[in-house]
Design brief:
This protein is α/β, with parallel strands linked by helices. It is built from 10 helices and 10 strands. It is 39% helix and 20% strand.
């Protein structure tokens, strides 16, 4: 069996989750979950970045993205109160795979998950894609009521594509948080991103929060409503987030119980 077959096979993807918190409330409760896809255990593909690069080199981004989405959606079907789910998807998948949005809609139907609770987070790890194709991919998602989040990236061509798609959410990458608690220049850049988000009518999510000081500064930065990162929790199995009180799930005999999906029986 090839490594790609292992990834796409049963239990080939192990979804991990990071709680996204509301910065305006002090309670430790997840308002949404950021998904991290890990490849087969015991391989280098357990590293999500290595998995993404492997998929790109094998021209298998759409297949791997579908596998990550399926694993994450089915895993979270045990939640008592469904949360917003932030799914990582290669930008190349959105621009080239015309059936991806429909396959994602089918997964949501199987799990009885409301499409409006799914946020597709485009990843540009493989580099920029053709802008018109990306916009068409975003339109296909929106026609099916999915939300779209795009990263605020230091690469100018990628950033231009972000603006053209008019995303529902802008995601501030960790790069822009470095030094915000010490230097007024990155703090001004952060404020500019928030202003840009407001002009686009987009919400703001900050990724990679590490310190209490960063959290306090983000609370003051108008437009930053939610955040996640090591300050709150790293990528964890869903059961650990339940045990720590971040989320609630159904249980049977002391274990997480996955509620039935359309594939059961």
């Amino acid at each position: 069996m090839s490594l790609l077959d292992r990834i796409l096979g049963p239990e080939g993807i192990s979804p991990r989750f990071r709680p996204i918190v509301n910065l305006s409330t002090p309670d430790q409760t997840a308002r949404a979950l950021d998904v991290v896809g890990q490849g087969p255990a015991g391989t280098t593909l357990e590293d999500p970045t290595v998995l993404s690069e492997y998929a790109r080199r094998k021209l298998a981004e759409p297949m791997v993205d579908r596998a990550v989405a399926a694993a994450a959606i089915r895993a979270t079907n045990c939640l008592v109160d469904p949360l917003e789910l932030h799914l990582p998807v290669h930008a190349s998948t959105l621009s080239r795979d015309w059936s991806f949005a429909e396959s994602l809609a089918d997964l949501c139907a199987e799990a009885d998950l409301e499409r409006g609770r799914v946020v597709v987070v485009a990843s540009f790890l493989g580099g920029p894609v053709e802008p018109e194709s990306l916009q068409a991919g975003v339109r296909r998602l929106r026609r099916r009521s999915f939300l779209v989040a795009l990263p605020v990236d230091r690469d100018s061509s990628t950033f231009y594509q972000v603006l053209l798609t008019r995303p529902d959410l802008l995601r501030i990458e960790p790069l822009f948080l470095r030094g915000v608690d010490e230097d007024p220049v990155p703090r001004s850049v952060l404020q500019s991103i928030c202003t840009l988000g407001r002009s686009l009518g987009a919400g703001i999510v900050a990724a990679g929060i590490e310190t209490k000081e960063q959290t306090e500064i983000l609370r003051e930065a108008t437009g930053v409503s939610r955040a996640f990162g090591p300050r709150f929790s790293g990528p964890r199995p869903l059961s650990e987030l339940v045990d720590e009180g971040w989320i609630s799930a159904s249980r049977a005999e002391g274990r997480l119980e996955l509620l039935p999906t359309g594939n059961s029986g």
